[in-house]
Structures are given as C-alpha cells and as structure tokens.
C-alpha cells in the first residue's frame, strides 16, 4: 500500500511541473518581443549597432530562460536578427560557426556516441561497482556511483553519463528492495538511501564535467566567450590543473551533504553484488568496437593535452611547442580522433556481402549527436564577439559595475557565481553561460581586475542548479524515476548550491595564481 501511494503521488507532481513549464513558456513568448522593443526605444543614446544588439540580447535571454521556443531555434533567430538589423554582415555572423570550439564539440560528441553504441561506458561503470565491497555498503554505493558519474562526465556530457548510470542504479535499488521485502524488511525504493543514490548520480555528473573543458558544452561556450572578449587563452592542461582540486573538494562535500541529509536506513545491501555480476555477464567479452573506441578516445586525450604538457616541459618559446599550439588545436584533435572511428574496422563477423568489414561507427549513428547544442554555441559566440566589436560589452560592463558598486576581484567573482547559479536553476546550462559570461567579463574589465577569474567562475557556475528538476537534464532524469521527492531535491540541492558556490569561488581565487591565470 505504501508503494502504491507514493507512485500515485508522482503523476500530479509531474503534471504540476508541465503546467509550470507551459505557463513560463507562454509568458516568455510574449515578454521577449516586448522587452526587445522596449530596449530599442529606450537606448537612443547608444549607436544603432549597440542598440540593436542589446535588443536581440534581451529577446534571447527571455526566450532562453522561459524556453518559449526550443533553445536552438532561439539561437538561429538571434544570428539572423543580427544580420537583419545591421549589427554585422553575414560573413561576420555566420563565420562564428567556423570556430575551433565547434569542432571540439563535434569530435567529442562523436566519440561519446561511440562509447554508448558499443556499451563501453556501461562496462566501465559495472567494472567499478564490482571492485571489492563497493555495492555491499549503502554509503560506499553512493560514493561509488558519484565517483563514476564525476569521472565519466569529464569526457562525455553529463546527460549521457546519467542516462547510462541511471538504469544501473535503478536496477540495484530494485534488486536490493526485493530481497529486503522478501526478508520482511522495508521497501527501499522509497528510502533515503535511494534518494541519495539517485541524486549523487545527477549531481556527481554535473560537477564532474568541470574536470576538463570538454566535460560540458556550457564550459566550452564560456571559455570561448572569455577568450573572445579578453584575447587570453586557457588550454586543456591549465583548465584541468585549475579545476581538478576544486572538483575533488566539491565531491567530498557532495557525499557528506547527501549522506547526512539522506542517511541510509540499512547497513548492508543484500543482492546488489549479485545484480552487478549478472549485468557484467550479460555484457560478454570486450568487443572490437569497445577497443577501437578506447583507441580513439586515448588519441583525443593525448592530442588535447600535448600542447599544454609540452609548454610545461619545454617552455612556451620552444619551436615544437609553438607548432603544437598552432596546428594541434582542440578542434583539430577532436575531429582527427573522431574520424579514426570511421576508419577502424570491427571484427570479421561485421563483414558484408563483399567482405568489407563495418567501421566502428556508422554515420547514421554519429549523426544522432546533439546538433542543437552546436547551434546554441554558435549563437553565443556571435553575440559575445559582436558585444566586443560594437562596444556594447564595455558600455554594459561600466553601467553594471556602477550599478552594483562592485570594484574588487572577490566581489565580482561572487557576483559571477551567484548570477550563474540563479540563472542555471531556471534554464539550460549552455544558455546560462551564454547569458552570464558576456555580462561578467565586461564588468571585470571596466573596474580593472583580471577578467579570467570571474569569467571562469561564471562558466562553471552555469553548470550548477541542483534544486529543481528543470535546472538540468540530469536532475530531470533522476526525478522522473519517482524515487526522489521534490522536497528532498530542494533541500539537498539548496545546501549543495550554497556550499558548492563557496568552494568554487574560494578554489578559483586560490588556484588561478598557482596555475598562472
């Protein structure tokens, strides 16, 4: 009876969420054009290019936050309006899609797709869970799933990571709960332990993306906007050195928060190990497709890190280092590694009638990557670069600096973190980065402090948003399980939001000088 009541309560909660989303979208659909017109009419003292771009930015922000139409569609409309209103010509606007980071997206997405197609990500997860007594203890199971989510999401999207780990977690919860009920125990599907397990998968994937710049789309967008507006670059190795200690501290804080607020009711998990063993058996032997995907992934990581490692060892003035930075960019490395997947053949069993073996990844499978994120990134790059070229960034930065009265690096960094966090609670991470970074960086420049620090914090904080199902796709996935009550997500997410921002701001302020940023 208890299980049925809980399940019956889930649909109304989902219905309320859908109604809220519909109202938000309808309101945004009207408010966006109204705000666009208001900005154009009330900024007569600015040059036309700045006025038009400010109007487009206002429209984009409202529609991204409200999700009045699909985010990618808003992105396309934004770049068309920039040309139509004379902010820049079409060559300048559409040229943003030749950005190196676009191809980093493409290559990374294709490699991640190959991992999913061949089950490499699932094999890695089950292998970790089978080590020692990880799945015998409720606390160790939560920590183990969180650690996997953190590490895997450093190289593939947090959504893909959660989509892979989520069914494994559900399977373990179901198996353990069934045995518990057979022995006269409670239904662990609606326990505090199950809540902690679901949330650590979602939250661990979100913070783990910070480990590398390619770990999440909003980070690549934020980094590119920072580089566009400041002329400074942050390579792969510098990013990892900066954020690795921060992510590790955040992970420890995450586990403490979830296990403290959702203390497990049991001390052992009977049946969990047997479930993992069965799942590993079903996977069978390591396939040729998995091996080839490992080769492509290792090649990508090698090429991504080569310029940064060479700089650390040989110095920036060395000829080899200069060549690597000029010719082995992250986009080139990602596309080269992804192309290898179309060259490496599978085993003999994949041979067709003509004897030709199938490639590791087919184009129809590769084409299933998230093209909408790429369009979103292109629009963000256009708006960011045009903000600098038209002078809108300087105008906006000076006005906001005077309005908020911020003048120190610490104050601006805190403002960046809070703004990124608040906006990410209501809209996508990629949209949050596209909104906050172009605002924060000009403020830092206007008051004469290092813009890299608040810019990086804004980009990182755009990946936060742990309180609501709508905040990120990982949150929505685990909430959809019906095992996570809204009140527990709100409470756990709020506490981790506050502590996470404190760790992020403190960590970046301390580590940036050490890394040399």
UniProtKB/TrEMBL annotation:
Bilayer topology term: Multi-pass membrane protein
Key words, A-Z: Membrane, Transmembrane, Transmembrane helix
Claim: Transmembrane is one of the keywords in the record: yes
Top-level taxon of the source organism: Bacteria
Subcellular location: Membrane
Transmembrane regions: 27-46, 53-86, 92-112, 162-181, 193-216, 236-259, 294-315, 327-346, 367-384, 404-423, 430-449, 455-473, 494-515
InterPro entries referenced in this protein's UniProt entry, alphabetically: SLC13A/DASS
Family matches, as Pfam families: Na_sulph_symp (PF00939)
Coiled-coil blocks: none
Family, as annotated: Belongs to the SLC13A/DASS transporter (TC 2.A.47) family. NADC subfamily.
Protein's name according to its UniProt entry: Sodium-dependent dicarboxylate transporter SdcS
Species annotation: Prauserella oleivorans
Taxonomic lineage: Bacteria, Bacillati, Actinomycetota, Actinomycetes, Pseudonocardiales
């Amino acid at each position: 009876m208890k299980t049925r009541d809980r399940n019956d309560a889930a649909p109304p909660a989902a219905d309320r969420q859908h109604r809220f989303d519909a109202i938000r979208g309808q309101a945004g659909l009207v408010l966006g054009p109204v705000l666009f017109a208001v900005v154009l009419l009330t900024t007569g003292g600015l040059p036309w290019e700045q006025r038009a771009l400010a109007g487009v930015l206002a429209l984009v922000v409202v529609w991204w936050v409200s999700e009045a139409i699909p985010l990618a569609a808003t992105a396309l409309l934004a770049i068309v309006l920039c040309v139509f209103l004379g902010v820049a010509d079409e060559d300048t606007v559409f040229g943003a899609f030749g950005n190196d980071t676009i191809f980093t997206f493409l290559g990374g997405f294709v490699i991640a797709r190959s991992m999913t197609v061949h089950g490499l990500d699932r094999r890695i997860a089950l292998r970790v869970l089978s080590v020692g007594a990880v799945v015998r203890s409720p606390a160790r199971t939560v920590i183990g799933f969180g650690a996997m989510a953190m590490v895997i999401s450093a190289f593939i999207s947090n959504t893909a990571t959660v989509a892979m780990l989520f069914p494994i977690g559900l399977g373990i919860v179901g198996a353990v709960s069934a045995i518990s009920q057979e022995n006269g125990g409670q239904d662990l599907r609606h326990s505090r332990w199950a809540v902690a397990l679901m949330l650590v998968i979602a939250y661990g994937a979100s913070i783990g993306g910070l480990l590398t710049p390619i770990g999440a789309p909003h980070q690549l967008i934020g980094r590119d906007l920072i580089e566009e507006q400041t002329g400074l670059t942050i390579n792969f190795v510098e990013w990892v050195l900066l954020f690795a200690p921060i992510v590790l501290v955040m992970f420890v804080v995450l586990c403490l928060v979830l296990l403290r607020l959702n203390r497990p009711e049991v001390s052992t998990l009977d049946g969990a190990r047997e479930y993992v063993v069965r799942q590993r058996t079903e996977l069978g032997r390591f396939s040729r497709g998995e091996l080839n995907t490992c080769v492509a992934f290792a090649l990508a990581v090698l090429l991504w890190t080569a310029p940064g490692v060479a700089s650390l060892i040989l110095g920036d003035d060395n000829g080899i280092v200069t060549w690597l930075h000029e010719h082995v960019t992250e986009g080139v490395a990602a596309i080269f590694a992804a192309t290898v997947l179309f060259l490496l053949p599978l085993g003999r069993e994949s041979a067709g009638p003509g004897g030709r073996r199938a490639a590791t990844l087919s184009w129809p499978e590769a084409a299933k990557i998230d093209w909408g994120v790429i369009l979103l990134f292109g629009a963000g790059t256009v708006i960011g670069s045009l903000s600098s070229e038209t002078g809108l960034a300087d105008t906006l930065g000076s006005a906001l600096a005077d309005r908020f009265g911020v003048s120190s690096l610490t104050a601006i960094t805190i403002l960046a973190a809070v703004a990124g966090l608040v906006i990410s609670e209501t809209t996508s991470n990629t949209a949050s980065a596209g909104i906050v970074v172009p605002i924060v960086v000009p403020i830092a420049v206007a008051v004469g402090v290092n813009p890299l620090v608040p810019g990086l914090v804004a980009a990182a904080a755009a990946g936060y948003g742990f309180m609501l199902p709508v905040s990120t796709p990982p949150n929505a996935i685990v909430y959809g399980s019906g095992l996570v009550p809204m009140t527990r997500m709100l409470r756990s997410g709020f506490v981790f939001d506050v502590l996470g921002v404190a760790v992020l701001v403190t960590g970046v302020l301390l580590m940036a000088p050490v890394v040399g940023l």
